[in-house]
Amino acid sequence: MEKPIKGYPETPLVISDDFTSTKLALNWQWNHNPDNKRWSLTERPGYMRLKTGKVVQNIFEARNTLSQRTEGPECSGIISIDLSHMKDGDIAGLGAYNGEPGLISIVKEKRKKYLIMTDRGKEKEKVELKKNKVYLRMDCDFNINVDKAKFYYSLDGKKWIQLGPEFQMVYYTDHFMGIRFAIYNYATKISGGYIDLDFFEYNRQ
User: Fold this and answer.
1) Domain spanning 29-204: which CATH class is it, in words?
2) What are phi and psi of 12, to 5 degrees?
3) What is the per-residue pLDDT across 44-68, written as a single tens digit (0 to 9) for each?
4) Please, what is the end-to-end C-alpha distance for the chain in angstroms?
5) Whole-prediction pTM
6) Exposed e or buried b per residue across 140-150, where buried means at least 16 C-beta atoms within 10 angstroms of its C-beta
């Protein structure tokens, strides 16, 4: 079908978002029915605040995971997060989300924070993070016989460091159809922590 349809404006499927609106854009979807007491676009204007709720064991049990689709042939997503109010055991980050996810996470362990890349729940690389603001990036390559994702972090939004190896994406339909960008924050020990998401920047090649 030729797009845009004559007489109608072009509507992108996946968008960047600076979270300046008080309403969540329709391009976003939640992984479960959301707990609306645990997220806010107004408590800190210009940010999406994601609060932890029920203590869970992994991302599949967590509510309020914010997601958008990925698109081929290549695309990338960047987020900026303020981590100042994470609690011990909290896990937040960006992922290639489906039944077998690849994730780049910030994990709070007592008074320290770590950046960890996991492949289907297995830790591949871990580095200590000594700042309360971090940029995360996920690059997806859906070209024929590739289907790879790479994860990066930055402390200034300019110099990027890859964390972990390439992640082999697999098409599943048990959670979503295909791989999605996932932005998450959940508690494994105590609820009440939160992160502030400054923006989601999307690019498609």
Assistant:
1) mainly beta
2) -70, 145
3) 999 999 999 999 999 999 999 999 9
4) 20
5) 0.94
6) bbbeeeebbbb
